[in-house]
Design goal:
The chain is of the alpha+beta class. It has one domain: Hypothetical Protein Pfu-838710-001 (Beta Barrel). Helices cover 20% and strands 46% of the residues. The chain has four helices and nine strands; from the N terminus they run βββββαββββααα. An eight-stranded antiparallel β-barrel has the order 1-5-4-3-2-6-7-8. The radius of gyration is 16 Å and the shape is globular. The C terminus is likely disordered.
C-alpha cells in the first residue's frame, strides 16, 4: 500500500518551463467514483495503469497502482469510463529538493495548468517555486474526478475562468 500525500497549486506564468527535465502525454478516464474513493485508468505513452485511490484524509489518501495492457486501457476508455477523458502533458520540474509535476491540460480543459508536489508527511515544509500560484489542494473543483464530470456535463471547453466561477462551484457540489 502506498500513501499519497500531495499539494496542488495553480501555475502562474511560464517560468517553470526553463527548469523542466522531461515531458509526457497522459490520458485519464474515470472508471468509478464513490464516497470511499475512485478508480482511474491512465494511458502514458506505451504503458497503462489502473489506479485505485481511497478517500481523502487531509491531504493524504491510499493509492494502489496496477500496470495493465494498453489494449485494456483503450477498451476501458471506449466502453467503461464515465464522462470525458482528461488529456494533459506532464512536465517534471525539480525545485528546492522536490520533483514538481506541472500538468498542462488540453481539450476541454485547455488553459488550465497546475503543479503538484508529493510529500513524505502532511507537515513537511516546502519551498514554493516562483511560478506556484494559489493553492487548490482542498478545492473540490480541481479534483480529476470532478473535472471529468464537469467536462462531460458541459460538452465543451472548460477553462480556468469557468472553474473559478460561483456557478461552477455549485455544479460541482451537485454532482
Amino acid at each position: 500500500m502506498h500513501l499519497e500525500i500531495e499539494r496542488k497549486f495553480l501555475v502562474t506564468g511560464t517560468g517553470w518551463r526553463e527548469g523542466a527535465t522531461s515531458r509526457r502525454a497522459l490520458r485519464d478516464g474515470l472508471v468509478s467514483q464513490g464516497a470511499n474513493g475512485k478508480v482511474r485508468v491512465r494511458l502514458d505513452g506505451d504503458r497503462a495503469w489502473l489506479t485505485v485511490k481511497g478517500a481523502r484524509s487531509g491531504i493524504s489518501r491510499t493509492e494502489f497502482e496496477y500496470e495493465i495492457p494498453v489494449a485494456d486501457a483503450e477498451h476501458m476508455f471506449a466502453n467503461v469510463c464515465s464522462g470525458s477523458m482528461i488529456e494533459k502533458t506532464r512536465f517534471l520540474v525539480p525545485h528546492a529538493g522536490h520533483e514538481w509535476e506541472v500538468d498542462v491540460f488540453q481539450g476541454p480543459l485547455s488553459g488550465l495548468v497546475w503543479a503538484e508536489v508529493e510529500l513524505e508527511s502532511e507537515t513537511q515544509a516546502i519551498t514554493l517555486p516562483p511560478w506556484a500560484g494559489r493553492e487548490v489542494t482542498g478545492d473540490p473543483r480541481f479534483r480529476h474526478a470532478n473535472l471529468l464530470m464537469l467536462c462531460a456535463h458541459d460538452r465543451g471547453r472548460i477553462g480556468l475562468s469557468e472553474l473559478l466561477r460561483e456557478t461552477g462551484e455549485r455544479r460541482m457540489r451537485a454532482s
